[in-house]
Amino acid sequence: MKVGIITHVNCPCGHRGSIVESIYDDGHSHWYRATLEGLSHSGHYDGTDRLFADNTPACAACGLSLTPEHVDSSEFKTRQNRRHAETVT
């Protein structure tokens, strides 16, 4: 089964991009990949959020490093719930 998770990130300059996670697991094989859309990999983040630490997103328009605090507010609760589920399992 392939699952896609899109996390929208808003820069204070007004630019918006996404971190797209693809997860595949059919019981025999599995893989995980995260890609940036409308963002660059030139950011700096050394916090505990693996999605941001592994991908180091930055705004493609102004170059600002983006952090979990820049996640679209409508998605923030979903990300918090998902992170909690990952630590429980």
Describe the overall structure.
- The structure is a single chain.
- The chain is α+β, with helices and mostly antiparallel strands and 89 residues long.
- The protein has one domain (2-88).
- The protein is built from two helices and five strands.
- The chain has a three-stranded antiparallel sheet, with no helix packed on it.
- Strand 2 (16-25) and strand 3 (30-37) form a beta hairpin.
- The two termini are 19 Å apart.
Question: Can you lay out the helices and strands and say which pair or pack?
Answer:
Layout: E1 2-10, E2 16-25, E3 30-37, E4 39-40, H1 50-55, E5 58-59, H2 73-88
Antiparallel strand pairs: 1-2, 2-3, 4-5
Q: Looking across the biggest beta sheet, what order are the strands in? A: 1-2-3
* Sequence stretches where pLDDT stays below 50 over 5 or more residues: none
Overall radius of gyration: 13 Å
Range of strand content: 25-35%
Based on secondary structure, the structural category is: alpha+beta
Q: Identify the overall geometry.
A: elongated
What is the assembly state of the chains in this entry? single chain
- The residue fraction in helices comes out at 10-25%
Distance between the termini: 19 Å
